[in-house]
Structure formats: structure tokens, C-alpha cells
Amino acid sequence: MTITPVKAEASGARAAAIKLSVSGVEKRYGSVVALAPTDLEVRAGEFLTLLGPSGSGKTTLLMTIAGLALPDSGRIVIDGRDTTYTPVYDRDIGMVFQNYALFPHLDIFENVAFSLRVRGLSEAEVTKRTRDALALVQLDHLAQRFPKELSGGQQQRIAIARSVVYQPSIILMDEPLGALDKRLREQMQIEIRRLHRQLGVTIIYVTHDQEEALSMSDRICLMNNGGIVQLGRPADLYFAPRDLFAANFLGEANILTAQPGTEPGAARAAGATIRYDGPAPAPLGALSLLIRPECFSLGEGEAADNRLSGRLTDVTMLGPMTRLDVACVDGTALIAKIPTGRAVTQLVIGQDITLCCASQDVIRVGDPA
């Protein structure tokens, strides 16, 4: 698998103007460093996701961009204008929160129209923009309902309509789908991406959900302990993680602690010699190898760069894919996800099987201490 570096993406016709620039922004709460000095550039029209576990600094970074938290140091520039200490209402930013923040005493039309009325637009312009925003989220037929009469998904779509109605240049979304069930969350992911393509607006999206980030983003900014771990396209972070945290946080991962082999690009792990994609000089000590579960195939009679043998300990059908849990001869536990088919359905727990993968699907990541 070939991964295109992020730097190459920023050249030529794909280069885009910088919409937002964060330079050395830091935020502390007493002795707690919520956000270490951080640099980040967001391109115009980009869908950038801030991804990380609780306490990683992603929401703090979003709040400083919004103006809801003032940084202790650093600079925030939007469209070439220093907005570090600009009031929230003067930043040309729309916001969508997890709790929707709708006014319960106003009907849907007035909820969406509220920000336009505050800005003093004419009644004709308020009506037109509000109707257009409701049509955009396909809820114009519910304009006279009240928030309590809508489902969670409908309320979130109204919150999105309210954030776009005054045509901001940036929309910030803080865990907007966190309160929805899995099926509705997946539907809303598609809806938000559709709106992003249709409007061409810059979106900065906060989530702790890896699948959400991978499926929606142009780029992902992975954060941990108040700082940026890795920034790049979803495929880059998934298949070429910078370190073990990134490898483990984005999706399921087989991380093998291996010993260098006798030739470059080879190591011993899981009772076998494994050829990997990495720097030619092998390190003197142990190294960490990443294999994603879906990179394996069943290896009966199949030629492959790597063949790992073991005993099948569990089989879990996941619809189009089936998960196989395998214990290798040296005790190493592996997870494989194989397309569901006749050969897979005939597997029996306890039998010996061989998993195969190509050397380019074995990635050397940050080595263990």
C-alpha cells in the first residue's frame, strides 16, 4: 500500500489558502496544562477533525479558536486577521454543540432565525435565509414545531441549520453526534459531509470516535496530553502512524514486539520471520511492527511475503467481514478480519490456520523503550 505524504497534497492545484492559523497557542488552568504550545494551519474549505481521548486538549483548542477560552500565550489568525482576543460574536464563526443548545420556547423557524435577528437583518432577508437553511437540512416542513417535538437527529440538524444560516466562514463542531445512537450517528455523518460539500465551508470537528474521524475528515489532527501527535490524511494516520499511541488509537491494531533479523527489513516475531516496510538499517534492540487486522488473508496454499501460523481461538461474524482470533505458536495473539465467505464459515475453533500478509502491510512504528 502506497501512502501519499501530506506535504505532496499541499502542492500544485490542490494547494489551498490558509483559513485559520494557530501559532504557539497555550492554555493552562492553574498548574494543569490543558493545551501545550500548539501550531496548526487549517485550509479554506477543509474538513479537519481534532481527534483524541478525554483530556487530550482537542476541546480546549476548539474553545480558544471560538473565543470561548482565551489563550495564555500564542496567536490565532482567521483570514489574515488577528482574532486572538476578538469577542466571540465578531469572529465570523458558527458553532454546533453536543447538547444542541436550542431555545425550548421558540419554534424551529425562530430558533434558526435568532442569530439573523440579532444581527439586524431585514425581515425579508431573515425569512429567506431561514427557509434556505431549513431546506438545506431537509427540515423546512417542521418550521412551526418546537424542539421537544423533534427527535435527537432532527434537533441536531436544526442546530446545524442555525450555525450556517448567517453564512460564517468557519463552523466549529464539538462532539455534535455524541448523544445519538449508532445508526442515527452514522446517518448524520453522511448528512454533515453532504452539507460540507454543498457549502464548501471550513469545518473544524471535535470527536473521540476514531471511525467518525476516519470516515468524515479531509485531514485528522490527532491529539494527546495537550499536544498534537500527528496531522495528516485519514489513510496516513491509519496505515502510517507516527508512534504506538497513534497506531493503537486509530482502529484495531496488531502490534508485534520483534527482534531484528539477520537482514534489513526482516525481524522475528510471533514465531516467524516477518518482512516489513521500514528503514533499511535494523535497530539494535526490539522494534514494533504494526499489522492491521484487515491486511491478513487466509493462507492455505497461498504464496505471501509473511505467513503466521497459530490456533484459531474465536470466530466472530461481523456481516461482510469475519473476525478471527488466533494464538501463535509463541503465544502472540493476533486479530484478523477476513471477508466473509465459504472458506471462513467452515473454520472451526481449535484448528490450526495460517494468516498471510504482504511486507508493505507490515509497518514499523515507534520502537519500544
Structural summary, described in words:
- The chain has 369 residues and is an alpha+beta fold.
- It folds into 2 domains: 243 residues, Rossmann fold (3-Layer(aba) Sandwich); 110 residues, Beta Barrel (OB fold (Dihydrolipoamide Acetyltransferase, E2P)).
- Helices cover 25% and strands 33% of the residues.
- The protein is built from 10 helices and 20 strands.
- It has a 6-stranded mixed sheet with strand order 6-7-8-3-9-10, with helices on both faces. Strands 13-12-11-14-20 form a 5-stranded antiparallel sheet.
- Strand 11 and strand 12 form a beta hairpin.
- The protein is globular, with a radius of gyration of 24 Å.
- It starts with 5 loop residues before the first helix and ends with a strand.
- The N terminus is likely disordered.
Secondary structure layout plus pairing:
Blueprint: H1 6-9, E1 18-29, E2 32-43, E3 47-51, H2 58-66, E4 73-78, E5 81-82, E6 93-97, H3 108-118, H4 123-136, H5 152-164, E7 170-174, H6 182-199, E8 202-207, H7 210-216, E9 219-224, E10 227-232, H8 234-239, H9 244-249, E11 254-260, E12 266-269, E13 272-275, E14 287-291, E15 297-298, E16 306-317, E17 321-328, E18 333-339, H10 342-345, E19 352-357, E20 363-365
Parallel strand pairs: 3-8, 3-9, 6-7, 7-8
Antiparallel strand pairs: 1-2, 1-4, 4-5, 9-10, 11-12, 11-14, 12-13, 14-20, 15-19, 16-17, 16-19, 17-18
Characterize this entry briefly.
The protein is an alpha+beta fold and 369 residues long. The chain is 25% helix and 33% strand. It has ten helices and 20 strands.
